[in-house]
Design a protein that fits this description.
Elements lengths: L2 H6 L6 E4 L6 E4 L33 E3 L10 E5 L16 H6 L3 E7 L13 H19 L6 E8 L11 E7 L4 H11 L4 H11 L3 E5 L2 E4 L10 E5 L12 H19 L5 E6 L14 E6 L6 H6 L8 H8 L4
The structure holds zinc ion (2 copies).
C-alpha cells in the first residue's frame, strides 16, 4: 500500500517516511492536524492543563507528590492526545520494512504547574524541582521497557519555539530508533575523542562557563546557534540523566537561573530546550555526558539554515557567556 493510499484511508496512525536521496526521517502524523491552538490566552478559561480541568486530558500517567487522582498535585504527566508516535501494546516486528513504516514509541506531556503559569520562572522554586524529579522518574521508567531505543524531554516555550498551548509544559518522547541528531553525537564520541571533557575544559579556558552547581555546569558551547545558547551537563561522564538521581533538582535550579537571566537580557524571549541522553540498547559511547541544550529563538531559521545546515548568529560564545553570568 502506498503512503498516499494509506493517508486517504482510515489509518491515521503516525508513521515514518524516509528519503533515499537525503539523510532525513519525517514523522507523518495526520492526527496532529486536529490539535487545538491556544491563541496564547484566548482559551485560558478552558485550559486542559490547569488544576480542576483534569477531566479534559487523557488519564494521568503519574504525578508529584505521589497520590491518588483527585488529590492536589504540583506536576503531572499525561499521554499526549496528539502523539507523533503510535504506542502499540507490542513493539513492531523487527526488520527493515517495520522500521521504514512504524512510528512506534511514547509521547507524553509533563504539566509543570497546576496554575496557569506561562513561564518557568513564575513557578515556585521547590515546585519547579518537583517537576524535574517527576521527569527523571518517568524517564527511568521508560528506560526499563524493551521496546524503546532512546528517550528525551523537550520544551517549546512561546509560539516562535513551536508551542501551541501557553500553560507551562514539556514533552517526553521515547522512540524505537536512535534519531539522526543524537546518532551524529554518538558517532563523534565513538571515535574516542571524549568531546564533552574537551567541551568543559575549553569552556573553562575561554570563560564560557555560565554557572556551576554541585556536579553540574552550565556553559555556552563554542559554536552557539543563537545568542545565549547554553548547555547544562554533568562534569563527569554520565550517559543518562534518568540514572542521575541527584541531578534533577540541580537541573531545576540551573534552568531557572539561565532562563531568568535570558529573560532579563531579552524580555519575552522564546526558547526550546531538549535532553540528549545516550542510547538505551546500544553500547554507550565512551566519555559521553548527557546534556540539556537550551536554544533561544531570537531569530527564525530561514533559507540559509535550511539550505546549509549552518546557522548565523549575532553574538559569539564568549560574549554570550559574559552577559549570561550575573557576577560580571
Ligand atoms: Zn492553564
Ligand atoms: Zn546534544
Amino acid at each position: 500500500m502506498s503512503d498516499d493510499h494509506r493517508a486517504a484511508g482510515d489509518d491515521r496512525r503516525p508513521r515514518l517516511a524516509h528519503d533515499p536521496a537525503v539523510p532525513r526521517t519525517v514523522f507523518v502524523a495526520p492526527n496532529r492536524a486536529d490539535r487545538p491552538i491556544d491563541q496564547f490566552g484566548a482559551a485560558r478559561h478552558r485550559c486542559p492543563f490547569c488544576a480542576g480541568q483534569e477531566s479534559l486530558t487523557p488519564e494521568e500517567v503519574c504525578r508529584r507528590p505521589h497520590g491518588a487522582p483527585g488529590s492536589g498535585w504540583t506536576a503531572r504527566i499525561i499521554p499526549n492526545r496528539y502523539p507523533v508516535v503510535w504506542e502499540a501494546t507490542a513493539p513492531p516486528a523487527a526488520g527493515p520494512s517495520a522500521r521504514a513504516d512504524t512510528a512506534h514509541g511514547v509521547h507524553e506531556v509533563l504539566v509543570e504547574s497546576p496554575r496557569h503559569d506561562t513561564c518557568v520562572v513564575a513557578i515556585d522554586p521547590q515546585a519547579w524541582r518537583e517537576s524535574w524529579i517527576l521527569c527523571r522518574e518517568r524517564l527511568a521508567d521508560l528506560a526499563t521497557r524493551g521496546d524503546l531505543a532512546w528517550t528525551t524531554v523537550f520544551k517549546n516555550a512561546g509560539p516562535a519555539a513551536g508551542a501551541s498551548l501557553e500553560h507551562v509544559h514539556s514533552q517526553l518522547v521515547g522512540l524505537g530508533f536512535v534519531p539522526p541528531v543524537a546518532e551524529a553525537e554518538f558517532v563523534l564520541a565513538r571515535r574516542g575523542t571524549a568531546p564533552f571533557a574537551a567541551l568543559i575544559e575549553s569552556a573553562r579556558h575561554e570563560r564560557r562557563i555560565v554557572a556551576e552547581c554541585g556536579a553540574l555546569v552550565a556553559l555556552v558551547p563554542p559554536a552557539p546557534r543563537q545568542p545565549y545558547e547554553t548547555w547544562i551537563l554533568p562534569l563527569d561522564a554520565r550517559p543518562h540523566f534518568h540514572a542521575d538521581a541527584a541531578a534533577a533538582t540541580i537541573v531545576a535550579d540551573l534552568t531557572r537561573r539561565v532562563i531568568g537571566r535570558l529573560l532579563a537580557l531579552e524580555p519575552g524571549a522564546n526558547y526550546n530546550w531538549w535532553l540528549h541522553q545516550a542510547p538505551l540498547r546500544e553500547a554507550i559511547p565512551p566519555g559521553w555526558h548527557w546534556h540539556l541544550e537550551i536554544l533561544p529563538r531570537l531569530s527564525g531559521f530561514a533559507g540559509f539554515e535550511l539550505a546549509t545546515g549552518c546557522h548565523i548568529t549575532t553574538a559569539g560564545a564568549v560574549e554570550s557567556a559574559r552577559r549570561l553570568r550575573t557576577d560580571t
